[in-house]
What we know:
The protein is of the alpha/beta class. The chain has helices spanning 9-51, 54-96, 119-122, 131-135, 141-150, 158-172, 175-186, 194-198, 212-231, 238-259, 269-283, 290-301, 304-320, 324-332, 335-350, 354-370, 372-376, 430-446, 478-495, 513-526, 586-592; strands at residues 2-3, 379-380, 384-385, 393-398, 411-415, 418-423, 454-457, 461-465, 500-505, 532-537, 555-559, 562-564, 570-572, 577-578. The strands form four sheets. The protein has a six-stranded mixed beta sheet with strand order 8-9-10-6-11-14, sandwiched between helices. Helix 13 runs antiparallel to helix 15. The radius of gyration is 34 Å and the shape is elongated. The model has no long low-confidence stretch (mean pLDDT 85).
Amino acid sequence: MEKRTLYDFASLKTEIQASRVDLDTKSRHLMWGRVVSFLLMLFAASAAHDTGWPVFYIAAPVLLLVFCLLLRRQSDIRQQQLELTVKVGLISDLLARRSEDWRQLSDTGEHYLRGDQPQLVDLAVFGKDSLYQFLSLARTKLGRDRLAASLSPFPTDFSMVRERQEDVKELASIPRRLVELLTIARLLPENDTPIPGLRSLFEPVQPLPAWIRPVAFLLPVLVFGSLIIFLLGYIPWMTPAGIAIFAVLLASALRARLISAMAGIAPLHDSLHLYGRIFAFLVNQEFRSPWLTAYSDRLRRKKAAPAIQELARLADLLEMRRNLLYRTLADLFLGDAHLAFAFLKWQKEASDELPLYLADWAELEAIASFAVIPLSRSTYCYPELLDKDEPHLAFTNLHHLLIGESTSVGNDFASDAATHIITGSNMSGKTTFLRTAATALILAYAGAPVPASGMSISPMRIYSSIRVADDAANGISTFYAELLRIKSMMQAAEDTSTPIFVVIDEIFHGTNATDRLAGAKAAILALTGLSFLTLLSTHDAALANLRAPSGGGRIINDHFEEQYDEEGKIHFDYKLRPGRSKTTNGRYLLEMTGILPPSTKHTPHIPSEK
């Protein structure tokens, strides 16, 4: 178990906001400095023209230089202001996870829902108010895809899960540096997808003719040299003009061939600079966990930051070709050919590694997202992963991650292969308990911490039947849809050797009482065995009398209950207790909503066990 004081993001936010105010003041001073230097420059230029005094001829260009330097400095200040604004937004989002404000975050991951995995809907893994929405700090599409793939109802290799646990621990232990890193990432475009634009980098390029290289170096010399000789008066103007025209025509003829392989990277110049900063930041960190250490060492050994910064420089030059003046000058000196030579050199030396760098960054974004839990919850643990072939789940003080820590109630539970029939009155916490247990398993299998004092698990495939809906388009009723869910759980046990974890809420509530009871008994017996750990909530007290089949497994009764105060008002403590429920509160709720007339005093109903 780990319980600690949460990192003081509020103070960090205040500190950054104060820095932003200082930058605003500097920016205003620089703006006035630019205005004054520009006006003085105009005065000096006018005075130089009117008086011919040398001092004004010197002052005018000096003031122009001062104006340009102030302009450059103000541009740097504006970039710093932008980054501080982004950092404040990031910290605000982290603080939102400590309240209910996280439900307003925009990245819900709804498009990751899959029709063949209804567990993702039942357990609110993706979509509005989901696990993904609470966790996601990923900025790139690859990072979001990696996070989504990690939130799977089916367990992966536990050795990989243990490794990721160490990575999450380390990132959570350096919150300030993590904020610095994620701030750079947040400057990337939303859902950044560099791979399509970079795909051309990995495709073989047709070799350039051998004559292009010497011509590319000789022709600029001829253009520049002939211009100098003309200015000295040794040759007519037609000579440099003719050479320049030839250079422009040659550049135009070769442009498509020289630039085609690089065209995709031009729009990515800003993103490439940011990836260069990200890699440079990671290279300068000293990590302890094996994967983060290996990632940082690989970036350092392969010189990833300089490589991607060089690609960003080439992308800048390509983007500058949109400027007519720059493109004309570049054509005079066959700039496209020199760009092509530089690109071919980069492609030979660094292109094979770039997809690996980006894939590893996607993994780091997923790890950072899981670090949200220890940064927003004072009670959490990293589950103990048991390499055993039997179902196992045990936890103490487990809370639901999506319920505020100040209002949620923790529960204890421990079981191997068994079916737990959970009874209890309406609103007592049965469904929430089912979801809490299943979502904690999903988090644990992803390598994330869980909001509990302790937890141990074995590999189990998670199946659920909670939010069952009809499918009018295919003629499937709610009851039949639930039958198909239950059948898929039975089939899963036959198709895999991995144990099955099942959560079912109000089994077969879409049919009449007689058929519901008969079907529920058959389903429970089928989902009870040495390969099942089943949690099933129900209002049917008769199901609590079931006995386990002879083939193995156990049937255990648990329940939630309500209490009534002296005024007859209902209260819940949301605590799981052993044994079957002895009361119901349906009549109380009917009276409370006005459907039934109020009685003088509520008497809890003891359900029949027949």
